[in-house]
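To close the chapter, one final illustration. This time we ask the reader to focus less on the individual chains and more on the assembly as a whole: which components sit near each other, and how the overall shape emerges from the parts.
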Amino acid sequence: MFMGASTKQGQDIALKSREIVRSLISDKIDHLSTEEKSIVERIVHSTADVEYAELCHISSGFVECSIESIKSGKDILTDINMVRAGINKYSGEVKCFINHPETIKMAKKEGITRAAAAIGYAAEYGFKGIVVIGNAPTALYKVIELVEEGIMDIESVVGVPVGFVGAAESKDALEDTQIPYIITKGPKGGTPVAVAAVNSLIQLSKDNL
Amino acid sequence: MFMGASTKQGQDIALKSREIVRSLISDKIDHLSTEEKSIVERIVHSTADVEYAELCHISSGFVECSIESIKSGKDILTDINMVRAGINKYSGEVKCFINHPETIKMAKKEGITRAAAAIGYAAEYGFKGIVVIGNAPTALYKVIELVEEGIMDIESVVGVPVGFVGAAESKDALEDTQIPYIITKGPKGGTPVAVAAVNSLIQLSKDNL
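The assembled structure is written out below.
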């Protein structure tokens, strides 16, 4: 199994792609650790967008905290179901509450997005683990708010929401916290970036046993 | 309901984003029809990547064939589950066979990727409708092969596989067929592009009733 490929042909493609990615970005990620390199390489592999080599910022401690969380089988929480659908090799649970009746109720009552309300719902039931935001800046702001208020206690955040409204600012705000993170600077990011980061962490936690 | 947003805050963000997208790309998509513009705008909204304004190529007839297919409730077939998870407002069925036992058997037997075998399985059971390839070039090549051999009969293809190995070439090959298509030129593309295109077509088919 290499980068999600389960057949010989799939693995050959993944290997060739990884070589191309390395030749394109190795000089830009020279300052990163081996594990951080492998996360960024997988993101560029998944998006075919070399810009991510420079847009990805990883806080010190992010890789260790995240691998520890995965090894101890803690839940992974995603903002939307597309992200959950892409994380398919985790032996623990991957949760998403965007369609949960309590989320829908909370969103209406508080006048917030469902993605943000879904984080609120996860905090209420006592979620611990890695939070993965691949789409909604409002969900990332909610994570920051609840952690800073001491209502939510998490291990790390994959914070890569996308869009021209609030995404860049929400990621800047995450950088100003004590939460271990990976972000993509600016408006870009999204579900494939989120999925690539998490699947890479899952792989690293297996290599690292 | 606007661009997938179901709450007031979500709709406000989507509206503001659409305005920003228009200001960034309107000169680049001036030659497109109103429907085509709305598809490309949604792709740029979903990826926060203005490059897609120029990378998206849409064949004449693609919008009409796709809307007709959606209106008549035909199935939508996706290469991977992440794409299926993002298409959430369709009253018809959205199918993905990548984890189907027959697909896994066929991939092993023929030495092809599971994404390609999943297309082969869909052809066998007589799939008709829109095919959506958001990830695997091998799946797009399989669609082209089966349509050209007369084994598969489809309405249109959202052909936006991503990657440095084969993706660009597979999309060039689709452009050389008679199949109505949307593609993204070059290595870039991916699940958010695929989902944005399909969700935009679903919205257009409702506006167009």
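Chain B has ten helices and six strands. Strands of chain B lie at 56-58, 75-78, 94-95, 129-133, 156-159, 181-184. With these observations in hand, you are ready for the problems at the end of the chapter.
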